[in-house]
Amino acid sequence: MAKVCSTLVEALADIDDGMTIMIGGFGGSGAPIELIHALIDHGAKDLTVINNNAGNGHVGIAAMIEHGMVRKMICSFPRSADPRAFTQLYLAGGIELELVPQGTLAERIRAGGAGIPAFYTPTGFGTQLAQGKPVAEFDSKSYVQERWLKADIALIKAEQADRAGNLTYRMAARNFNPLMAMAAQTTIVQATEIVEKGGIDPERVITPGIFVDRLVQIADPVQEEALNREDARYERAAQ
Amino acid sequence: MAKVCSTLVEALADIDDGMTIMIGGFGGSGAPIELIHALIDHGAKDLTVINNNAGNGHVGIAAMIEHGMVRKMICSFPRSADPRAFTQLYLAGGIELELVPQGTLAERIRAGGAGIPAFYTPTGFGTQLAQGKPVAEFDSKSYVQERWLKADIALIKAEQADRAGNLTYRMAARNFNPLMAMAAQTTIVQATEIVEKGGIDPERVITPGIFVDRLVQIADPVQEEALNREDARYERAAQ
Amino acid sequence: MTSQLDSIKLSNAQIAWRAAQDIEDGAYVNLGIGFPELIARFQSDDKDVTYHTENGVLGFGEAPEEGEEDWDLINAGKKAVTLREGASFFHHADSFAMVRGGHLDLAVLGAYQVAENGDLANWSTGKGGVPAVGGAMDLVHGAKRMAVVTDHVTKKGDPKLVETCTMPLTGLACVTRIYTSLAVVDVVDARFVLREKLDTIPFDDLQALTGAKLHIDGSIAALQVPTL
Amino acid sequence: MTSQLDSIKLSNAQIAWRAAQDIEDGAYVNLGIGFPELIARFQSDDKDVTYHTENGVLGFGEAPEEGEEDWDLINAGKKAVTLREGASFFHHADSFAMVRGGHLDLAVLGAYQVAENGDLANWSTGKGGVPAVGGAMDLVHGAKRMAVVTDHVTKKGDPKLVETCTMPLTGLACVTRIYTSLAVVDVVDARFVLREKLDTIPFDDLQALTGAKLHIDGSIAALQVPTL
């Protein structure tokens, strides 16, 4: 049953060093910037972060990297308008990268949430990204075996939440969010609005409450893109 | 691009003997009764039918079986309040049965739609229903390999459709319908209402139009349950 | 002993009542078709429990009044239900993602046989006829607790808790707790551990009605006999 | 020959225009980030084409006016877009189900190299730096037609249509048609078949700029040079 937290600090309290954290979003859309910045304040380190990208500018995941919190990125596209935070650390050997084709990344996360330990996909067969992975032939076509991805924590950005934890998303901000919400031990959601249980039409629910552990309302969430346009730089708050 | 058909006959015209047909619904909810009965009139035979059940009473899939159209059922639960149509033919050796656990059935159909030729599931491991299937161990747990399911035709019951083929469903009538819509070569939909392109909020679309080939409006669809309560029996219309 | 048993054993409703006591506040629960569905009747109002049904509803409630049924709103047993506040609809693959993915706190099923290692046989008598499995083989995998409600013995008086299932298996090593008409038994490290038994049946008699050794780990509580 | 080539070869916009001519009415199309995106500009209004983007939108349209951007409504290139009538939103797994499951009619990508058997290299120069693949490896599998838009040769004048790719592969035997700055070439049975070429380049010169044999199957049409 989802628990409504009154602060970001409360929502993130038990995150530990060394955890694997899925962070929703594709570029800036659907990125839970307030949760990410609160996690920077929290200070967990040695994290494995799963996201489509690897940060842009000096906010969000890029700021996590700049604060030395990320040991490893699992992503499909560690490039962006301003990828310096990741690029510099990667080229200096300071951060590990597991590069996963985007559709395979999405499917591995779904598999983690759905209890499917492995599946076969045509994607990547015969390429560097399939090296070392089992392959198999079905109906005379070759496929690569891919494993599920799970996480300790998922940080999710939703539009509306009700107190049962049911979620909706805003336009293309949906992207990886509903998948990651299924695949983590603890799913922590920032929602623009938290309404009473039953305040969302059951037909409109995208993420059913069973996948959600904690909710915190961020009524006017900032867009990563907006921060980057003003050259924002997130610095850890003094403790 | 979805095509709006003015009659059920037009929607089903090119269905051939020997095809594999997915039929949406779980029991009566979401069962496209008008499409099924029009298919009985059409007269295709030697069909493989994929549905969760195997008919109830003397309407819908049960009536297809009684009309000798079905060579094989792929389903999870060939029992119902009145399963005689299937039971009698099955015990007489007149129809083949592939029994699939319900969650595996759903996942195999999704896999067919998603281009995943095979996946591993814990379901059925060590049971009769996994006999002859490859098994594998992941993280010290045993799993069964299951293959995708695809079909030539899917018959779908939707609530609203727009002219782009986008669909919504009514309550628990959703069930297998969105999965089957993805997994067939040709997806044929009966919708209670067909609205103009753009008439469905993009956030509310459950089946995007890319999965839909033909639409036919059935403004006041009958419920299988209602037919069975009046002991209805569907007989092929005289040609 | 069977007729004597009949006088002391719990009714299905009483077994369901006992199972309901263990459901935690906030739990997501799937109750199998038939006997397990009775459990919902004994859910206390001070616990917020959300019921899942395989056909794509989370948060359904009681049956509607006769004549008020909406046949697009049914449960896995094809019975009409109603919605509670906070309900949601989803398709079958998402529904079984909840099951297989370990998101349910509890699933409760009936049983033909349960083995001491937790194997469950509940889908087929193996005697021919039309086989049907539904969602049982999925439900036994994934829920955090997988409980069984059952008579302690068959109608003929044969044990249903056994060393090894002789009937076709639904799942291997999956059952965590068994609520019977005489006892509450956990499966721990491939052994039956007796947690509760009726005061009216001596341990040795209970053991005699059980097809595998009943282990004791700490005290054995009295299985309550509620007045329903 | 390079400078001479520069004077006759199609611009990227002209290549995109040519690719646009082949898109069928009613098609579902994914255009890769960058050069392939240009194709949408040349889509004629009498064809109803639905564009897919990996991040979960079907039926998006042009960029909004400057200042009108909604950053929750972007495409795979992270650029703001708008919606057309009949659009829909879905999550990333459903989006790639559309791709991998063969539901798109056409995907168009750029290329470093295309081999005569249809192998494509377009994601990594293999020279180090930060590798990034995005959705390219998924997009090359599944679409009914998988086209490439590219210069016929590299900036140094080396062939991009080759016998065997020397750069890291994106996918094996996946490309069905190549629109270059000089020609339109199909991949048929692991061979390049020349369909169209600029009138201004002799066949032998085109063959010399191509790293594998150009086969001829029927007539070679004139590649049009549109005024854009």
Which chain pair shows the most residues in contact?
A: A-D, 54 and 39 residues
Number of DSSP strand runs of chain C: 13
Amount of helix of chain C: 10-25%
pLDDT < 50 runs, ≥5 residues of chain C: none
- Binned, the helix content of chain A reads 10-25%
Describe this structure in words.
The complex is a heterotetramer, with two copies of chain A (239 residues) and two copies of chain C (228 residues). Chain A is an alpha/beta fold and 239 residues long. In chain A, strand 3 (47-50), helix 3 (60-66) and strand 4 form a beta-alpha-beta unit. In chain A, helix 2 (33-42) packs parallel to helix 3 (60-66), helix 3 packs parallel to helix 4 (84-91) and helix 5 crosses helix 6. Chain A has helices at 8-12, 33-42, 60-66, 84-91, 102-114, 177-183, 224-229; strands spanning 3-5, 20-23, 47-50, 70-75, 96-99, 118-121, 135-138, 141-147, 151-162, 184-195, 214-217. Chain A starts with a strand and ends in a 10-residue tail after the last helix. The model of chain A has no long low-confidence stretch (mean pLDDT 97). Chain A is built from seven helices and eleven strands. In chain A, the strands form two sheets. Chain A has an eight-stranded parallel beta sheet with strand order 1-11-10-9-2-3-4-5, with helices on both faces. A three-stranded antiparallel beta sheet of chain A has the order 6-8-7. Chain C is of the alpha/beta class. In chain C, 16% of the residues lie in helices and 28% in strands. Chain C has helices at 2-8, 12-21, 92-100, 136-139, 203-208; strands spanning 28-31, 50-53, 57-61, 82-89, 106-109, 113-115, 120-121, 145-150, 161-162, 177-180, 183-188, 191-197, 214-222. In chain C, the strands form two sheets. Chain C has a ten-stranded mixed beta sheet. Chain C has a three-stranded mixed beta sheet with strand order 7-6-9, with no helix packed on it. The longest helix of chain C has 10 residues, at 12-21. Chain C is globular, with a radius of gyration of 18 Å.
